[in-house]
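Hey everyone, long-time lurker, first post.

I ran two proteins through the pipeline my lab uses and got sequence/structure pairs for each. Pasting them in order. The first:
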Amino acid sequence: MTQFSVKGSAVLQKTIERHEEKTPGQVRALARALTILRELGREPAGLTLTELSHRVHLAPSTTHRLLTTLETQRFARLSASDSRWRVGVETFSTGAAFVRARDIVEIARPTMADLCQETGETTNLFFTDLTDVVCMVQVESHHQMRAMFAIGGRLPMHAMAAGKAMLAFMREETATRMIRGGNHVKLTERTITATDQLLREVEDVRGKGYALDNEEHAVGLRCAAAPIFDEFGNAVAAVSVAGPTARLDTARHQAAADATLAAAQAITTDFGGRPANSQ
């Protein structure tokens, strides 16, 4: 049986291919300038010319020439007080335009399609609403026997991989309050309803980065899910893979989790987000 994993993941590879740009001579300067902007964006305290040139692997003279060009367009600025370069106001304006225009459903859809093709199972995008998760978009498996969730349908957070993935990356006090105060309905014999057990499960998910559902929502159904983050490190959605236990045995269930985590990371990057634990 063919396995799929995060290492050499087809999802990750296809995402890279979609974003990879050729840099012939006429646009190499642009590619270098964008690399400089990316590094400046990672350092709120700014970087000296020497530090920046080292990071982007360019000569200081080349780096300085590109920086001064960016400065004239207000995408970079040099602080007179400490001689450090920082992003300029036009970078903020451009980023704000992206935030206003982005649509997480449309951003996630291509990676979800890749994830469905890689795993052979249905992929879903969930959002939270109070103590439930809501399925917003789905890419169906081509198998005759496949997992299906109603678009717009509400499902209890505690019994879903997507729900547990979202719970794990909420503010810890918020998640604890929801778990301790929730009415955890038992949907199957495997549904986790005990408060202490659910708290331990969420802590385990937080450590792994993904959640599993082993017939907790429905008998004969297994799922894996991982959160998608915004630019503030908030979990705003979760992507999941769902399939019948007849195909998702233990090994393939774990492999699906690895592939789902890679897909969630790719969508987070496309969405302009950052993981909760990133610096």
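...and the second, right after it:
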Amino acid sequence: QAQAAIARAVRAFQDRLEQAINKALRIEFAGAQFQGDMEEPSSPDVRISKTFDIPIDMLWFVIPMTIFRPLVNRHILAKIPWEVEKNLSRLSAQWADASNLCLDDLARQAQEFIRNELAVVSRLVIETRDRSPEIRAALDAIAALESMGLPADAADGSSGA
């Protein structure tokens, strides 16, 4: 959702920029497409206490399970809520950190993209010189030739032969 929101904000900026360029320079400007890269959170760091690490199968011959099974099961079942809460808390913290880093990176990419777009437009505006004096001189030359009775294509100096 954040990626889509940032992409919409960049697209809105590009639309406003396109309208301003079209109004000022009378040219169409589409701009580049913003593609923000997001990294999925890595697999969670799940840790289980030693209660669940003991291989009970190796101790079955020492503990008479017919007698102690309810006690062992109760002990293990009592630990499960704590393990689940601990690992869910760890998971949410890891994903929050990863999401925040990812969103910060995505915002940085969007800002860099917008700066690059503005730099390109600025460079185009600076490099595009005003050609209206040249156009006006060419139109005056054509008008002068037409007033002398010459066709407008005679301005190139070719006599047609």
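Reply from user beta_strand_b:
Welcome! Quick read of the second one: The two ends are 70 Å apart (CA to CA). The mean pLDDT is 76.
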